[in-house]
């Protein structure tokens, strides 16, 4: 989020829109394992327009740069198949609302939340975890012996637990918003602010 004077008061309405978007996306992700474009695209456009309305061209740049940073942080996980396009678009919506600093902070806390979430899910599905490690060791041994990097073998989808990454994005973003609201002088937020 940008720490411009007066922006915090105007952010309240956008924060409510973003929270609604996040909760709706999480509900869809849990029920259908998909985050619909009907949630993400309108929210992205709305955030850009609202920032533009209040701050003109600089507000539009603020929103678009946050969206670009969010896209950049999520592109590699999407490209290697760790998450879906809906997750990337949801994070872009977060960036469009919170701007570049908020997008970086939200990605950081989303990554932490995602790691904890994945660990809990895998601990609840120990057979899937064992199966994954057996396949990984076999794949690594073959790659090491043949000195060729083959594609990691696909597992039976029924064996693997479903991860709804929209939940991690929601948890990470809500954490970011709460920290900016109640602890804006936190060291990690200031370091992220200097990076963007």
Describe, in short, the structure shown.
The protein has 196 residues and is mostly helical. 80% of the residues lie in helices and 0% in strands.
Give the SSE layout.
Blueprint: H1 7-32, H2 37-79, H3 85-124, H4 126-146, H5 165-182, H6 187-195
Helix pairs in contact: 1-2, 1-3, 1-5, 2-3, 3-5, 3-6
Instruction: Please tell me how large the radius of gyration is.
Output: 19 Å
Number of helices: 6
Estimated share of beta-strand residues: under 5%
Number of strands: 0
Q: What's the pLDDT, averaged over the residues?
A: 83
Helical content stands at over 70%
For the record, give the distance between the C-alpha atoms at the N and C termini, rounded to a whole number.
11 Å
Q: What is the helix/strand order?
A: HHHHHH
Major β-sheet annotation? none
Show unreliable segments: 2-10
Class by helix and strand content?
Answer: mainly alpha
Categorize the overall geometry.
Answer: elongated
């Amino acid at each position: 989020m940008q720490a411009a004077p007066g922006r915090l008061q105007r952010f309240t309405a956008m924060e409510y829109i973003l929270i609604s978007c996040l909760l709706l996306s999480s509900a869809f992700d849990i029920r259908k394992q998909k985050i619909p474009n009907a949630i993400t695209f309108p929210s992205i456009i709305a955030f850009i327009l609202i920032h533009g309305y209040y701050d003109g061209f600089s507000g539009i740049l603020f929103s678009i740069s946050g969206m670009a940073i969010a896209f950049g942080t999520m592109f590699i996980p999407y490209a290697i198949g760790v998450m879906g396009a809906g997750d990337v678009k949801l994070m872009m919506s977060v960036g469009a609302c919170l701007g570049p600093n908020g997008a970086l902070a939200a990605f950081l806390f989303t990554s932490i939340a995602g790691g904890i979430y994945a660990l809990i899910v895998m601990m609840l599905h120990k057979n899937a975890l064992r199966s994954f490690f057996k396949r990984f060791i076999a794949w690594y041994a073959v790659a090491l012996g043949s000195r060729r990097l083959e594609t990691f073998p696909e597992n039976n989808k029924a064996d693997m637990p479903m991860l709804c990454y929209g939940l991690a994005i929601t948890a990470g973003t809500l954490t970011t918003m709460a920290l900016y609201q109640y602890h804006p002088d936190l060291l990690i937020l200031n370091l992220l602010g200097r990076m963007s």
